[in-house]
Amino acid sequence: HDLLKTLVKDMDIHVSTFNPDLSNFPDTKKIKLLFVESPTNPSLHVVNLKKVWDLVNASKYRPVVCVDNTFATPIVQRPLEENCADLTLHSCTKYVCGHGDSIGGVVVTKNPELYGKIKHTRTVSGGIMSPFVAFLCMRGLKTMGLRVQRHQENAAHLDLLFQKYPNVVKKIHYPGFGGMISIDLGTREKAAEFVSHLKIPVIAVSLGEVRTLINVPACMTHSTYSEEELKALNLSPGFVRVSTGIERPVDLVNDFEQALKKIEK
Q1: Could you state, in order of their start, the residue ranges of all structural domains in the chain?
Q2: SS3 184
Q3: E-assigned strands of the chain?
Q4: Domain 2-141 has CATH 3.40.640.10
Q5: Cα–Cα dist 216/235, whole Å
Q6: Class of domain 145-264
Q7: Exposure winner among 29, 110, 156, 229, fewest CB in 10 A?
Q8: What is the pLDDT of residues 115-170, one digit of tens each?
Q9: How far apart are CA 219 and CA 147, in angstroms?
């Protein structure tokens, strides 16, 4: 967000946004790169990537389509194989590594021309992953399938739990897959109290690691957003994002339930 609002603006790169439901999909005439994140962060809207691809290819002006696939992971969603993107991005810091002990990212493409341009930019700019970080990511890939399976299982269990407390949980944001789930508790005070009662989750802005992580976007990951921008994203002060870990489902559910019961009083 800060990158798009500040640094690229100074490079004379202009950025506009569109809604996940594509209701205000832009005219592609002046667009060079169409960047899509699905599911979105932190409201977890699922963007119809096939429709985006069809809209772009139906236009006379054809921008490059890049999908940030970090939340879904290649285990769940593969835009390149499904012919819905020219490029995919993955923050290896998250599910790929999976242990919260490295920082890195990858861009993937099947297009030889794009590959050549990206590789040249990487070479001359010096943005090259260190051997040890690459090792950590390779290690993480070996267990990613198993981990994502447990992440999804835990998120599904929490979804069922949250549905049992409609008086406390005002809204649940869950796409039905993946290890991310968000809830709206209404107020900043309720969110803070809820988080304070939890014992298992770690308060952190990252996601996709073996530990369950939790954050309140309005004062953490999205703290740089203006009040108007938060409203546009339907992010209330009581919005809480959960990245499920690989703990035993029963332990996670019990911990979240005892916290819900305490703020229900």
Answers
A1: 2-141, 145-264
A2: strand
A3: 33-37, 64-68, 87-91, 105-109, 171-173, 180-184, 202-203, 213-215, 239-243
A4: yes
A5: 10
A6: alpha beta
A7: 29
A8: 999 999 999 988 889 999 999 999 999 999 999 999 999 999 999 999 999 999 99
A9: 29
